[in-house]
Amino acid sequence: MGRRKFLGYLIGGTGLVAAANAGLLSSPGEANALTAPVPADLLDLNDVLTAAALPTSQLIKVEVHEDGTASFELPRAEVGQGITTSIAMIIAEELDLPLEKVRVTLAPARPELLFNQLTGGSNTIFAMYTPVRVAAALAKLALLEAAAALLGDAVEHLTTRAGEIIGSTGRVLPYGELVPKAAVPTTTAREVQLKPESEFRVVGTPQNRKDAYAAVTGQKQFAMDLEVDGALPAMVCRPPTIGGSAASVLNSAEVKAMNGVTHVEIVPSGVAVRAHTFGQCIDAIRALRVQWKPGTAEGASDDSIRAEIKSAELPMVVPHLPVLAETMDFDFTFYFRSGSPLEPNSAVADVREDRATIWASAKSPIAAKQEIAATLGIPSGKVTFNVVEGGGSFGRKLFFDGALEAAIVSRACRAPVRLMWHRADEPRQGRSHPMVTARIRVAHLGEQVLGFEHRHTGVAVDFTHGLGEAITATAGKLPIAGNLSLAETIFETTQFMPYDFGVINQKLMETGAHDRFPTSAVRNVYSPDVRAANELVVDQIAKKLGKDPYEFRLAYLRKERVKRVLQKVAEAGEWGRPMPPGTAQGIAIHEEYKGASACLVEIDCRPETVNRVVRDAVTGPLVTKVTFAVDPGLVINPKGVEAQMQGGISDGIALALTNSSHLTDGRFLEASWDNSAYTRQWNTPREMEVFVLPSDNPPGGAGEAGVASAFAATACAYTRAVGKLPQYFPINHHDPLHFEPKSFIPPVPASPTDGLDHTY
Question: Which residue, of 326, 327, 493, 656, has the greatest Cβ tally within 10 A?
Answer without folding.
Answer: 656
